[in-house]
Model the fold of this input.
Amino acid sequence: MEDALSDVLRLIRLNGCVYFVRDFHAPWAMGMDPGPFAQFHAVVRGDCVVEIGDRTIPATAGDVLLFPHGSAHVLADRAGRQAVPGPQVLASFAGDAPLFADGASPTQLVCGHFTYRDDLRHPLIAQLPDLVHVRAFDALSPGTIDSVLPLLVHELKQDRPGAATAVERLAEVLLIQVLRAHVARAPVSRGFLAGLSDPRLARAIRRVHEQPDEPLTLDGLARTAGMSRSAFALHFKSRTGMSPIEYLTKWRMYRAGEMLRSATLPLERIAEKIGYDSAISFIRAFKREFKISPGQYRRAGQNAPSDAAQSAVGNE
Done:
């Protein structure tokens, strides 16, 4: 599972950003508007509630709350509070009058977000629910979450060389552990992560990732999984929500998109590296997936990194 998951996380260029570790003293409430980034909160000490849509969910020390699609939500000491917008709360921490600095029952939170390429709608992200809640007392939660959080808090509170990079990397490790815990729980019965948790399907997915340039077929992938052709096709779709060949095509297009934006290879060479006999057949498949030509995609990506960085700064 970890190898295929790592492939995807590298491809989508996952980056972690942590805003703060702060004590929130009751009464308090912080509202987060919908945004383009995957937001997260970790409860280091105390407890709180999360309001998302019409749901109110309690969270306690050690819990991690991930909002993969940047959904609007409120965190508070109890339900029904009038929330202060998140940017206003964040701005107050840089001044002389930080919000929620006095009162009872302090809750310590680590808050931040994750960025990743939004031009690649890999099912790993697209199929996640609006909220992934990993509970501290969940027996299926990896014990490493208990180790990562203290390290993350320690680095946030230190002014040492390399602290910013350490915090970013620890936040990314935290996300991986959250995803592992999510797939380990019984409700995750369908989706890309569910496919990775199935050893037979994971072998086939891994082969797709390792050999996108090979002439892979449904029969060959079924043999890799150790299943009959029909059983493999049915099981793959029931678990992941797509057919094996559909995922093979998507992965090839994702790899092509990466090459278009990170290299100057001609289309003929890119087509060869992802298993297409000709540039024409590759271009047709690419346009079906991305709705634009490879050339347009390459040109559109020339300014994407700086634009994304500016957008991230503007939202912190």
Observations:
- The first helix runs from residue 2 to 11.
- Residues 305-316 have pLDDT under 50 and may be disordered.
- The longest strand covers residues 15-26.
- The beta strands are 15-26, 29-32, 38-45, 47-52, 55-60, 64-67, 73-76, 84-85, 104-115, 132-134.
